[in-house]
Amino acid sequence: xxxxxxxxxxxxxxxxxxxxxxxxxxxxxxxxxxxxxxxxxxxxxxxxxxxxxxxxxxxxxxxxxxxxxxxxxxxxxxxxxxxxxxxxxxxxxxxxxxxxxxxxxxxxxxxxxxxxxxxxxxxxxxxxxxxxxxxxxxxxxxxxxxxxxxxxxxxxxxxxxxxxxxxxxxxxxxxxxxxxxxxxxxxxxxxxxxxxxxxxxxxxxxxxxxxxxxxxxxxxxxxxxxxxxxxxxxxxxxxxxxxxxxxxxxxxxxxxxxxxxxxxxxxxxxxxxxxxxxxxxxxxxxxxxxxxxxxxxxxxxxxxxxxxxxxxxxxxxxxxxxxxxxxxxxxxxxxxxxxxxxxxxxxxxxxxxxxxxxxxxxxxxxxxxxxxxxxxxxxxxxxxxxxxxxxxxxxxxxxxxxxxxxxxxxxxxxxxxxxxxxxxxxxxxxxxxxxxxxxxxxxxxxxxxxxxxxxxxxxxxxxxxxxxxxxxxxxxxxxxxxxxxxxxxxxxxxxxxxxxxxxxxxxxxxxxxxxxxxxxxxxxxxxxxxxxxxxxxxxxxxxxxxxxxxxxxxxxxxxxxxxxxxxxxxxxxxxxxxxxxxxxxxxxxxxxxxxxxxxxxxxxxxxxxxxxxxxxxxxxxxxxxxxxxxxxxxxxxxxxxxxxxxxxxxxxxxxxxxxxxxxxxxxxx
Length: 669
What we know:
By secondary structure, the chain is α+β, with helices and mostly antiparallel strands. It has 9 helices and 38 strands. Helix content is about 15%, strand content about 45%.
């Protein structure tokens, strides 16, 4: 494998943003400072009390409004709030005017007369601004209280804090009601109170390209007081070569306050060529990008030796702040055990993509590495049967896969919780409750250390309590400041046998679709959801049981017998009555079938059978009677004239006159 550093002669490094330094030159043969001059930034107010702070990242604005409430007049100096941003980045701070704007709301008063002061302390320096000496009048309703603070130029050493303090010397309500109040508001997107300052933000270093075959690895290094947050919470970062954006996910690594971002560029023409590389970092939404660029001469080789993905010497980051995709598939089967207990066999597949997948593959290729610094999650895995030749080979050998599967039996909870940000108990259940546990790794057809999905499959068997509520899944994503997962997709299916049932299944999140189906061969409960985030809360629960009235096959038999018995009784009640309406009402049978098939509890199924039976019986009783058939009376011939005569009475003896000769005929038998 050909691995060479590009024949990289730095021709020129230029800066394109008006906020940046004018013209940078290489400080060494490997990297050059290309950005950034002090720039204007909004430092948002977040938190309250001891956690009150200033942050340049709008992503840290929360959902709950922070507030200070004043309900009575203030006649002496009172501190309304203090916010802190630690470790201002080293560099020149130009003189100018900083603006502090804080939102307010006045209720049940005509307004407020306020005399207040905003103070910015940076190290030993202090800058203040106050309302007019006569006071400032704020009208009822909502508005913004602003202070223009003049700041003198100075040099930041890199370890000074910015501390913002708001104090009031006097607050007087005008025409107040009984519950008048003056509230200062901050901490959300709607109440985005902020200090707008011009300060050094960060340094961007452009690193000399590396060449591997026909792959070119282009990297920048971000140095800032916010470390990884600079990458994870900034609006966006991109790299352009000769004016065209490099696609594909970059590889990120971090150490202390430094974050390295490396893109793989595969657009080289081959041989020696000159390229212009430009980095663009949008620090805050709506602001101009911070940019820097460099021109390099590189030489690529058509050897096919590269993998198409940069292989970092240090452990890559699990997230760049935007998060990765996670797919969770659960297939479970409930069946009766040998001792009449209930056994639940579950297959849980966790498929990770994007940055997390690359981090996992890189870590798997470093099992037992005692040279490279590793995070506690990866360091917990021992070398086992992995040799030095197989380790750090950029390819995942079968022995590495086997060692991971073997050690995960003991390290599974640590890996899921600390490595993937998943609560193992809420996702899989407690490991100590498993009767059997087996773990398999699926590399999804790709054995190289590249950005490609990978699946970890857990096969578990455990006993569950008959008739007790079983929580299947519940909020298994551990919330992270920089989200590990951007999109979570769930596909869960629980099935029972003919003689076991799943009842009262429930999920308490409208974003998850719950469906229940029942056949005589078993219950099937499915839950599906797409695009869930780490903040979504949900609980999926069901009740496993072996009770005969809940088991699908016995319940199906009982339902059919109940319907058959109801119909037989209806037929019995409708003797000598018209059955036309009764037969028409047999269309109610599919209603009972639907209640059964859609998995309603047995009491609903029984209720449906009873309701249909009552309808049938009422119809049978209320149907009109059938008309009696005309009776055929016997005839007798007159002994004298042979005329036939109808004997229309059962009375004996019975006398009638012959219709022919009028002779009286006597019938005795």
